[in-house]
Design goal:
extended; 12 helices; five-stranded mixed beta barrel; 400 residues; alpha+beta
């Protein structure tokens, strides 16, 4: 029966490999693996009881490697074959390859400085049989390293693979101590980096200071992702900040809370005194003005009925406020043409201007004061009646 293992190389990268159970491999053993066209050397760090679902041979192409004029394609999550368990001779050759990799990294740095490429070299890895050199680097953007690959191929006379990685992978390879005082999670067990956003920090009641929520790599901490679901479960039974609550000491508002200890800090009303209570001893108070009114009958009321009722209430309030004012205001004269008002409004909605019947004259408004009654006559123009100061106007006249 075949068993699938997780293999870790000396440069921090890894892949999955399978072998027969008769080899008797265990976690921590070193082995020799057969890959595309070369042999590799690595350590077993994980054993799968069943083949992982994402480790299928029919995976899409992840990257391309250039070596001279040949392009090799590496499939993502491809399962390779373990040839044998490493012997003492294999371990000695692997240590020799590590020394050669350090020399290759130093020479690569000299070529990078000569070409002026904006890249930071991290490490180099020699395959077990020396047929491939893998150099990992980090950069802010894409780097055109085709000329560098040609020079390195002529220098080492072997295949060269340049692999660009992100800042999170770089930190996982180099290692370090986190703010909590423990080794970095990406070095110990966290190998898959999921998307992280600031919303996760808000839902965990963390300070949004960049130095607080950022890790050594300068990005958001990876623990914000895999702790997010636990904080959401704890938040379901906790009151929010600003809510009015009742506790054994009285009524007040929540000014702070701790999701891990399930305790809230309440500032009592009409006082500056604050108390800390468990969330189980606190009950949220809903004021009467925020409660639902009317029940099911009020919910079934249509919007038109509510609007008509509001207009009727407004009319009644105006009449009750000053009943004599409405009787003293002059009414609008009745229409003489007998035209239906609804028909006029319908014409206006359709974009048409309602026409006045022939022979009808507009009734003057008796309450409107006469205009232009006291305006003095306009003095005669000094330029002979021409607007442009007596000069001849050559502008074309508008056709009649």
């Amino acid at each position: 029966m075949d068993i699938v293992y997780g293999i870790m190389l000396d440069n921090g990268s890894g892949y999955n490999a399978r072998c027969d159970s008769s080899l008797g491999l265990h976690i921590g053993d070193y082995c020799v693996i057969r890959k595309d066209f070369y042999l590799d050397y690595g350590q077993i760090v994980k054993q799968f009881d069943a083949p992982p679902p994402e480790s299928t041979p029919a995976a899409p192409v992840e990257e391309e490697r250039e070596s001279g004029g040949t392009v090799f394609s590496a499939k993502k999550n491809e399962i390779y074959a373990i040839q044998r368990k490493a012997t003492v001779v294999d371990q000695g050759k692997a240590h020799e390859n590590q020394m050669r990799a350090k020399s290759a990294l130093r020479i690569t740095g000299q070529y990078v400085a000569r070409l002026g490429l904006p890249m930071k070299l991290i490490n180099a890895h020699y395959s077990y049989d020396g047929k491939l050199i893998t150099v990992q680097f980090s950069a802010e953007g894409r780097v055109d390293f085709r000329e560098l690959v040609k020079l390195l191929s002529q220098e080492f006379n072997t295949h060269i693979e340049l692999r660009q990685i992100g800042v999170r992978d770089e930190t996982a390879i180099l290692g370090g101590i986190a703010n909590c005082g423990r080794p970095l999670c990406c070095c110990r067990f966290l190998k898959d980096f999921a998307s992280i956003n600031v919303k996760m920090a808000k839902e965990q009641d963390l300070s949004l200071t960049p130095s607080t929520i950022s890790g050594i790599c300068g990005r958001l901490k990876c623990c914000l992702k895999y702790e997010h679901e636990g904080y959401l479960e704890l938040e379901k039974t906790m009151p929010r900040r600003g809510e009015l609550c009742e506790c054994k000491d009285g009524r007040g508002r929540v000014v702070d809370r701790n999701l891990l200890t399930q305790k809230v800090t309440i500032q009592l009303e009409n006082s500056t005194h604050t108390v800390i209570c468990p969330a189980s001893e606190v009950s949220v108070v809903y004021l009467d003005k925020y409660k639902m009114r009317g029940g099911a009958t009020g919910q079934g009321e249509s919007a038109s009925q509510k609007q008509s009722g509001a207009e009727d209430a407004e009319t009644e309030s105006v009449e009750e406020k000053d009943p004599n004012t409405a009787s003293q205001q002059p009414r609008k004269p009745a229409r003489q043409d007998g035209q239906n008002r609804q028909h006029v409004q319908q014409q206006r909605k359709q974009g048409e201007r309602p026409q006045r019947p022939a022979g009808e004259q507009r009734q003057p408004n008796p309450n409107r004061p006469p205009q232009n009654q006291n305006r003095p006559p306009r003095p005669p123009r000094q330029d002979g009646g021409n607007r442009d100061g007596g000069k001849q106007n050559n502008r074309p006249r508008r056709p009649q």
